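#data-curation
PF: Archiving a pair of folding outputs for the training set. Convention for this channel: one message per protein, sequence first, structure tokens after, nothing in between. First:
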Amino acid sequence: MSSMLKSYFEDLEKGLSKKLAEKVTARRTFIHEIARIGMKMFDPAWSTAWTTVFVPFEILNAMGVSGLFIEFVGAMVAGAGVARPFFERAEREGYSTDGCSYHRTIVGAALNGMLPEPDLLIAASFPCNGGVKALMRIGEIYKKDVLILNSPYRDTPESIDYLVKQYENMIAFIKEKNGRELDVSKLKQSIHYNNEGREYLLEAFELCKHVPSPANSDDWKNFVIYALLSGSKEGVAVAKTYRDELKRRLDAGVVGVPGEKHRLLWVQNRLQFKTDLIDVLEKQYKANVVIDELNYVYWTPMDEADPLRSLATRQIRHPLIGPVERRLHYLTQMAGEFKVDGVINPSHWGCRQSAGVRGLFKDAFQAIGIPLIHLDVDCVDERNYARGQLLTRLEAFMELLG
């Protein structure tokens, strides 16, 4: 059944190649590069690593390893409308529907034989333990060892030293399992590309702060998967294409949502299955999602001369690591920078690290005079999507903003 996944990426790549030949857009360029990464799973020249979302892909790329994080694959199959058999398989195996559907999807897909056998399994302990547990189950299915990167909680020099050691263990793990060596020059080049792409992204997001924004709600949807391109020349090209396109729109007076009335911040994940929610927000309420929490550029430029320490520093300072006050600081900072007047939190069923701080989200935004709505929804499992109820609550929220 892994041929289905291969066909998906091949069709996606061919379709976007054709569209790009007709017209180059930032979104098409971005998804085209993601499709090409997906195709590496089936390329014998590359090793394949199934990972969780926040591992240092720069290291993987420098060792000739194509990394794909399992949450991305869960979102992909949901977007393609083929996730239900995988949920059902996982549930038959005893996985509770209270668990994260991103991870239930990937476990069900592995049990159904959809996934090609990975060469490596590498998990990071943040943002949640669910991804670690899912990869451990996949390791049982394929009889593979799982390397776990344990991220310290506190931002201290000792914590960064510890994480550097974890990365050294990861490099040794990859060498042991498939004989690939770290190319230090490639890793330093990857840090250079990361810094270059970062600058383009900062410029692109600066353009989005304009009122009205030149970007619409879907331009940056799921841009968190840019992590797969982080530290690559393709990532730099994608970031530059976004910057250039948004600048052209702004110079030409083209706006993302005509008549933009409300500017929204989206917390954590988008809904992955097909819905008309964004259309309703944009067309009926003239509301534009101008920034997503997971797209925010929070890290400082990295040092090419000390790549492992730079990568460790970036990870240890991620908003989803450490005290929740750090995350709240970044969220309220985003709200101010992007001049938002409302916040949407799809309180994804199964995401414990966000569900547990719902009240603190609301308190933090209330303190700066910005309303927030919690949507009780599963971002991947559309069986739990109550459209009518959700739209009724959104209507009341938009009236509050008005």
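PF: Second:
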Amino acid sequence: MSALLFKLRNVPDDEADEVRSLMQQKGIEIYETSAGNWGISMPAIWVQHDDDLAIAKQHLKQYQQERASKARESYDEDRKAGRAPTLMQNVARRPFASAGIVLFCLFVLYVMISPFVRLAVHS
């Protein structure tokens, strides 16, 4: 019987390719399911045999720790070199989206607080 190993929704292609090649290198039989025609199914990598699941998860955990460490190091290097985008650079790159987010947050804050303000005023 097969078992779920790795969900592929919102996973970068390079990471999915690396997971596939890792399992192939370790000799673990896998198969993949797609999101389907409408994108509502679960795209994932499955282990063919339940017996391989524990070892596959162990290899996957080690891989993900190494990938996170490399990404963290790369970000730290970019930040020290001044290549990492700042908040103001992100706002300048997408001013309308940023303004929309701020306005939405203010609206939510208004909806949350206004009943208490009205209650205090009418008391």
